[in-house]
């Protein structure tokens, strides 16, 4: 018998980011949309689930870069298939074409996990400025070529597979008894015995957020992979900037700070719940934000009263 899904309070960097951006959008995403994958769910829940799965073109492109690299590394591990810019771009091109057709044909109406692009959904549902699609393609292909041509890629494929950790696999650890989600893009033990943890980035460097994200990866690695803090080397790899590597040193104080930030964030999330023990929430307890720019880029602006009021 399949285990019944239960909506639990968990934490992740992305969940914390959304909570800080807009608590009403946070409610829609993690509570209002819950169960919307079921075709028998009430229409308002199905609508929120559909909106939850919308992606901006930048997010979509970034996801394609991540998935393409992960697949290429797995193929190399299994079959020693060369990792080249050409093969990566060919795989990405197929993903871009497939996703674009899903979005234009509105396949997401029947299957909300299909590609649904913000610029189309809140545009004319048929096309966007050609310069945007061309820029997206250049960005995706440029990031993939930068990875394939980098010294880091050469180092990775030179490392014995037995030194690799699972590639881009969702997992969790706990802080104060709460599950904290993370998916490390790539990690391996280098020739000096250091455990290197890498996070691919297709956008600009946001130091505070990346520092917290990498600290979470360090906490995960210490708990799940039974390593020590001293062995860890953590870095963001900025693929859009010629695969530039930016290392973030970690010490005990940084780990304690990260745990403190997670606990503080969780306290704020719990404070909005009607019943924290059962993780029950009510929409009216989550205020809308007062930042028009945030509303303009919000997936839920179609249903949010604050966004509707601004449009009138």
Low-confidence segments, given as residue ranges, are none
Helix content: 40-55%
H and E string: HHHHHHHHEEEEHEEHHH
State the secondary-structure class.
Answer: alpha+beta
Proportion of residues in β-strands: 5-15%
Total strand count, please?
Answer: 6
End-to-end distance:
50 Å
Radius of gyration: 21 Å
Task: Quickly count the domains.
Answer: 2
Q: What is the helix tally?
A: 12
How much is the average pLDDT?
95
Biggest sheet descriptor: 4 strands, mixed
- Overall form: globular
Sheet with the most strands: spatial strand order: 3-4-5-6
List the helices and strands and how they pair.
Blueprint: H1 13-21, H2 23-32, H3 43-52, H4 57-79, H5 85-104, H6 118-121, H7 130-148, H8 151-158, E1 169-175, E2 178-184, E3 186-189, E4 195-201, H9 207-224, E5 232-238, E6 244-247, H10 252-271, H11 292-296, H12 305-311
Parallel strand pairs: 4-5
Antiparallel strand pairs: 1-2, 3-4, 5-6
Helix pairs in contact: 1-2, 4-5, 4-7, 5-7, 9-10
């Amino acid at each position: 018998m399949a285990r019944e899904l239960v909506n639990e309070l968990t934490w992740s960097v992305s969940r914390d980011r959304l909570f800080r951006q807009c608590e009403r959008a946070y409610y829609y995403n993690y509570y209002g949309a819950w169960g919307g994958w079921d075709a028998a769910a009430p229409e308002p829940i199905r609508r929120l689930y559909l909106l939850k799965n919308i992606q901006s073109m930048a997010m979509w492109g970034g996801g394609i870069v991540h998935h393409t690299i992960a697949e290429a590394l797995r193929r190399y591990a299994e079959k020693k298939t060369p990792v080249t810019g050409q093969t990566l771009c060919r795989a990405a091109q197929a993903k871009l074409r497939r996703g674009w057709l899903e979005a234009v044909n509105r396949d997401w109406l029947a299957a909300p996990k299909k590609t649904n692009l913000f610029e189309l959904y809140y545009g004319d549902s048929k096309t966007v400025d050609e310069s945007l699609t061309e820029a997206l393609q250049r960005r995706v292909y440029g990031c993939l070529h930068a990875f394939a041509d980098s010294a880091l890629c050469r180092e990775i494929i030179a490392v014995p597979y037995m030194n690799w950790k699972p590639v881009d696999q969702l997992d969790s650890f706990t802080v104060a008894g709460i599950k904290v989600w993370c998916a490390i893009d790539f990690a391996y033990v280098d020739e000096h015995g250091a455990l290197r943890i890498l996070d691919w980035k297709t956008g600009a460097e946001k130091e505070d957020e990346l520092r917290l994200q990498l600290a979470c990866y360090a906490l995960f690695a210490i708990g799940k992979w039974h390593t020590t803090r001293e062995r860890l080397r953590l870095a963001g790899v900025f693929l859009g900037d010629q695969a530039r590597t930016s290392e973030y040193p970690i010490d005990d104080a940084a780990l304690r700070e990260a745990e403190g930030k997670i606990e503080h964030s969780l306290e704020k999330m719990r404070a909005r719940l009607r019943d924290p023990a059962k993780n029950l929430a009510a929409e009216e307890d989550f205020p809308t934000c007062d930042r028009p720019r945030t509303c303009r880029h919000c997936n839920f602006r179609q249903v949010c009263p604050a966004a509707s009021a601004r449009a009138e």
